TrEMBL record:
GO MF terms, alphabetically ordered: ATP binding; carbohydrate binding; protein serine/threonine kinase activity
Occurrences of domain Bulb-type lectin (ranges): 25-148
Source organism (scientific name): Ilex paraguariensis (yerba mate)
TM regions (residue ranges): none
Protein name: non-specific serine/threonine protein kinase
E.C. number: 2.7.11.1
Amino acid sequence: MASIFMLILSFLCSQGLYSSSVAATSTIRVGDQLNSTTNLVSENGNFTLGFFTVGRPNSQNSSYFGVWYTNDDRQRKVWVANPNSPITSSFGVLAIDSNGTLEITSEGSSIMILHDQNGTVNATATLEDSGNFVLMDAADRRTLWQSFDHPTNTLLAGMKLGYNLTSGQNWTLTSWLNDYVPAAGAFNLSLESIGDSAQLVMHRRGEPYWTSGPWNNGNFEFTVTLNDTSNPYQYNLHYVSNGDGKYFTFDATDAKISMMELTSKGEILDGANSRFVSPADFCYGYQADNGCVKTQLPGCRSQKDSFQQLSANFPVTTSSYETIQSQV
């Protein structure tokens, strides 16, 4: 009897009917759906894509759709599709319709259209091992849309920071509002021309805040730690300039988790070991060292100005919490 049971068990396992979970896939097709219980995992398991929630004190959780390193203990999100359009229920769905439109919906309502395709296309969407989520025409393998063209707060290896004059594409990073809210925060990072070269420029609420210094001999003046040869996760920086435009990118040597993250505090962190690659201290506007930009004080101020200290308390609400943590 035992031998018969083992024979049946062996048959079920061989047919894949005795599995407690569905094998991970990296691709969805027309008619497929991703929801809060299903994810895509890149072919070699580097990245995971799906819905996630972020908790905020004294508030309900909001749901977002994004990408993260599968083996990152901190589960940092390296791309978010809907940072400014949170899903307030647990019924988010990502799907491709018969026209090739890639859309996030919730309870029948549209949250965000990632790509609106005109005409019938046999489209597939794949999470690649680079972390890029790519929608393409299955017939000719033509890329219709990709997440690397829509960065949020993180630059991954192979992503671009800069601009393309031909297509009009502009690649920039925007910080989160705070650790809990992916909505646009105070800081923005872009690549800007300076003479015959270029530099990274960080803006704080639209005003220049920090610069990397011009690109020279394979590095920026104030990001030297990225190319530190003593670092086992050495980053290789690349600056490309041609008739189409200019952009900065990087690749990493043997780095399990490589990234450049623009934080809500205006820091640029190396994801491998969270080293600072921009000034560790806040740029207050009165100093011009390590790339900090010295700001012009308003002409209405004088040395005779005085200030009165006032004290107050915000009520404990979601809006007040977000304001306190938003690095205003």
